[in-house]
Amino acid sequence: MKKLSFVLSLCLITYFSFGQTTKTGLAIIPEPVSVITKKGEFILPKHVLIVAGPGAELKSVTSYLKNKLTASTGALVKIKNSAKVPPTIKLTLNAKADTVLGKEGYHLWVSKKGIIIRANEPAGLFYGVQTLIQLFPKEIESPEVVAGIKWATPCVDIKDYPRFSWRGLMLDVSRHFFTKDEVKQYIDQMVRYKYNLLHMHLTDDEGWRVEIKSLPRLTTVGAYNVKKIGEFGRFSTPTPDEPRTYGGFYTQDDIRELVQYGKERFLNILPEIDVPGHSLAAVVSYPELSVTPGADKYQVRSGERTNVDNTLNPSSEYTYTFLDKVMTELSQLFPFDYVLMGGV
After folding, report:
1. Which CATH superfamily groups domain 26-160?
2. CA–CA separation, 49 vs 297, rounded Å?
3. pTM above the 0.85 mark?
4. Superfamily grouping for domain 168-333
């Protein structure tokens, strides 16, 4: 079920990307603020020289572009800080900020002789690269070299900047656990379309997905349930003898790796700890969080209908001690300014 949902989400993103075009007939998603088409086309040579300045963030942009071009086209790509010969692709940060572009905007010129992307910040260059990639034939997304393709883009003058500073998608890893590599795939799909915020729904009745070292039962107990197949919300009630081995969680090292992976793609991760309701996985792990008698007999929900109390006890000092431990460790893992605590 989770694999199907994951594939469907990627298919929908791909459908909307290649199923829509700008007023100029170019398949660019999201549609840029300004697109001017010109005569002619740029044809990618077999030897590509990318010129960009120094810096870790610029290196993230050039490495990303190199990997895209090399994987699908088979081109030999070199990256330099400067060159005596005209580069194939030049990435430049504005010496004086263009106030219209802001932090994430870019200006992309494609001519017959080469490509230039200018921006105020490295993030803008990264988004300019995403637009450039969409101008090539769709086979540019192939992880392997594709033969027989004319690797050409139309000559254009594109200026673009976002309307919204937060452009996010939520991934519910609690009800259906996705592996670290699957989350990376999701991030890859997001940044293609200039999303910059991944909202990770880390906890709910069906599982607690992030390691909290001071509260180990959250993941040794709260991260697993009984695997069920069918319609979520109408699964059969698990029997006592069914193994509770379905699920998983992210170690703190996994989270650090995902945060870094997003950072290299100019994407932040917003963690969500769903409280005080939707907290059955936490209550099962630590029954003293509940005010309801018999909470020590509860089990992590597998998607069946249930009427058990899934709420943390707001009148218990233990609840606040628990939350303090969770938030202390969580804040050390996620550098983003906010933590979402349910309510959506």
Report:
1. Chitobiase/beta-hexosaminidase domain 2-like (3.30.379.10)
2. 64
3. yes
4. Glycosidases (3.20.20.80)
